[in-house]
Amino acid sequence: MTPSDVKATLSFSDGSPSMDLPIYKGSIGPDVIDIRKLYGQTGKFTYDPGFLSTASCNSTITYIDGDKGELLYRGYPIEQLAQNCDFLETCHLLLYGDLPDEAQKKDFTARVSNHTMVNEQMQFFLRGFRRDAHPMAIMTGLVGALSAFYHDSTDINNPVHREIAAIRLIAKMPTLVSMAYKYTQGQPYMYPRNKLSYAANFMHLMFANPCEEYEQNDVLVRAMDRIFILHADHEQNASTSTVRLCGSSGTNPFAAIAAGVACLWGPAHGGANEAALNMLGDIQKMGGVEKIGEFIKQVKDKNSTVKLMGFGHRVYKNYDPRAKLMRETCHEVLGALGLQNDPLFKLAMALEKIALEDDYFVSRKLYPNVDFYSGIVQRAIGIPVPLFTAIFALARTVGWIAQLNEMIGDPEYKIGRPRQLYVGSVARDVKPITQR
Ligand code: CMC
Hints:
The chain is mainly alpha-helical. It has helices spanning 38-42, 78-84, 87-96, 102-113, 122-126, 135-149, 159-185, 198-207, 218-230, 238-247, 253-264, 272-286, 292-300, 321-336, 343-357, 359-363, 370-381, 388-409; strands at 2-10, 19-25, 32-33, 62-65, 70-73, 76-77. The longest helix has 27 residues, at 159-185. It starts with a strand and ends in a 27-residue tail after the last helix. Bound molecules: carboxymethyl coenzyme *A.
């Protein structure tokens, strides 16, 4: 971290001594005020629910400028990565800091391919779930269970273990997601095909069955690959912070990633693409395009809890750059499948247009986010809605792992332990039950 010549001075209106706080400069983005000595010197904590102004770490992985609508992985703009690279190159970039050359790509692809199968015993573990279990419930269980199957990669302090765990997680996620899907369909699991690309293998795992090959469609495979690239990392969001906090206790990488999966499930985070599609389904049931006005009225009503799912973002107060790319992919996929006139897709496009022109959304800088379009693309590809978040988890795994490894390797790393402002009862005595 580069110290700035400028210092922040914290003064108090009650005459307590003021305090100078160091400031550090990032390579881009806001400077940070170092408050680590604040409690020791003043006996006070800072208060920042939701971490609106708090940098929880320093990182070299991902940079977002929410006002500009810019997203960089290791300095490379997401647009260039989405257009020129595939997902495994992006994984290499996130994990090791740079894009692979040809030999590195070959080696990395071979290492990932070597780990695509899961221990055969995993399927018996999976059988314990109800057939109608939500895929994210299954994924939380399966990813956590990896630590019970791969004992040689559970020591988070051992760099060799961390490396094998990273490769295993990236390699096995498509297998696990497809197993969760096939299980709910009552179909046999497919084994991975290591000759296929990462995205094509996932399509094979999902849509082939022992009686029929899946005929790969390049537009759909590329769309799936792009979904993976766009969701691969997003700096210190809720699930990544969960992985860091969970991993900070020294727990094994599989357990930490399972915590990330659990966090991602929420509708305000990774569950938004599922929630967006369900919302479109609800508007469709209400009467479709004609009812958009009525629906938007509910969204704007202060007394209602209805939100326009797939719109808004904590960091982007401009168009989400991933949404722009996903929108492009969305049109390519709908075109390739001849679905431009599908009523649900028409509804989505009409809703997008109305919301982008409506003052409520414009004044609050609420733009469609990546999940609005990725849900539509996935539905068109034939992925069932409840599986959307599991696919997000598959893609985000590399980001989680890269962030976890960065934290463990950081000399300033400590177990995460936020503080609180206690506003509950002061100490009191327990009365006998007859007197309460
Ligand atoms: N629909 C209607 N109003 C909204 C929405 C929305 N989707 N999002 C924010 N607002 C309003 C909010 O009610 C508030 O209005 P007011 O100022 O009148 O009280 C204003 O906009 C500011 O919202 P906020 O709640 O302070 O914004 P936030 O940064 O805390 O929330 C968010 C961000 C993503 C949780 C929220 O926009 C949301 O719930 N969106 C829908 C869910 C969604 O699509 N989530 C996916 C995020 S992208 C994927 C990912 O990175 O995980």
